Amino acid sequence: MKVLLTGHKGYIGTILVPMLMDRKYEVVGLDSDLYERSTFGEGIKDIPELKKDIRDIELDDLTGFEAILHLAGLSNDPLGNLNAQLTHEINHQASVRLAQLAKQAGVSRFIFSSSCSNYGAGGADWLDENSEFNPVTPYGVSKVNVERDVSQLADDNFSPTFLRNATAFGVSPRLRFDLVLNNLVAWAFTKGLVYIKSDGTPWRPIVHIEDISRAFIAALEAPRELIHNEAFNVGRNEDNYQIRELAEIVRNTVSNCRVEYAPNAGPDKRCYRVDCSKIADTLNFQPQWDARKGAEELYQAYKRVGLSLEEFEGFKYQRIAHIKYLIGSGLLDNNLRWQHETLTTIA
């Protein structure tokens, strides 16, 4: 099967590519590669690719594909907040247009990387795929709107599926420190401190990026009637944690560290506990990672490369800081389009 993977050079995409290749898929990537200067550790698997902004996709780009796995977009709440209109254009409008073009091109499956951020200020009650959306950021709103609009394209020849990923964690060639477990382990390793910016009470479901990748493959390989125009929370019920629980896991993993809460820290409005029974029951999907195993993986990776405080607090692996650097350096314009193609190295 010939598959187009958008965002193949991102945090999740660089993990999903080799997994697809191991299963003998013919994979083509599509990515504007905003983070080409942010590779962590080992390099990235080379595949045929289109270096292209998702906003610039044309019908001819999609000819011959049987499935599209759509990961590309502005990837978290702080980056989405940088420019809400850009988040709308890239995450919402460009995604819907991609789906429309895919349908015209005869692509039969469209698997969208949605988010449990859709639930936003969901509180401590269990939320399943039928629960009310309550997004609190432009990023969350964009994901809700894509699901709404793309679901209306579903018909006998076009099957969209929406994977609502829990908060991701894990080591990747395009590592991110702006994700809760990755961030807490990096704090602990570089400063001997697990620093909590909220009061630690908010609930957050988490899932390893390898397990997110397995969910995409499970949806891709499932019988059509199981995934047609369906949404799935991606994770496992046991992997809903309060932030303070994650802090204790990290404290028990990283040597010589302590937990500290920010002064006057209050609850984070982003609080949701997600029921992932549907994906387990429907697709027989079971994650292979949990927070303890993930914290140990991150700790060992940081030790292996000798992660420094300067790297951790710098702009190389923080999405919003990196984008601001590229704009300030004149490499990107304010619409996040490349101005120069020459790769420069960040020390």
Strand-helix topology:
Layout: E1 2-6, H1 13-22, E2 26-30, E3 49-50, E4 67-70, H2 77-82, H3 84-105, E5 109-115, E6 121-127, H4 138-151, E7 159-165, E8 167-169, H5 180-191, E9 193-196, E10 203-208, H6 209-221, H7 224-227, E11 230-234, E12 240-242, H8 243-253, E13 258-261, E14 271-274, H9 277-283, H10 291-305, H11 309-313, H12 319-328
Parallel strand pairs: 1-2, 1-4, 2-3, 4-5, 5-7, 6-14, 7-11, 8-10, 9-13
Antiparallel strand pairs: 10-12
Describe the structure.
This protein has helices at 13-22, 77-82, 84-105, 138-151, 180-191, 209-221, 224-227, 243-253, 277-283, 291-305, 309-313, 319-328, and strands at residues 2-6, 26-30, 49-50, 67-70, 109-115, 121-127, 159-165, 167-169, 193-196, 203-208, 230-234, 240-242, 258-261, 271-274. It is built from twelve helices and 14 strands. Helices cover 37% and strands 19% of the residues. The chain is α/β, with parallel strands linked by helices and 347 residues long. The model is unreliable at 342-347 (pLDDT under 50).
Provide key terms for this protein.
alpha/beta; Rossmann fold; three-stranded mixed beta sheet; 14 strands; globular
What's a quick, concise take on this entry?
The chain is α/β, with parallel strands linked by helices and 347 residues long. Helix content is 37%, strand content 19%.
Biggest pleated sheet: 7 strands, parallel
Low-pLDDT sequence parts = 342-347
Order of helices and strands: EHEEEHHEEHEEHEEHHEEHEEHHHH
- Specify the helix fraction band: 25-40%
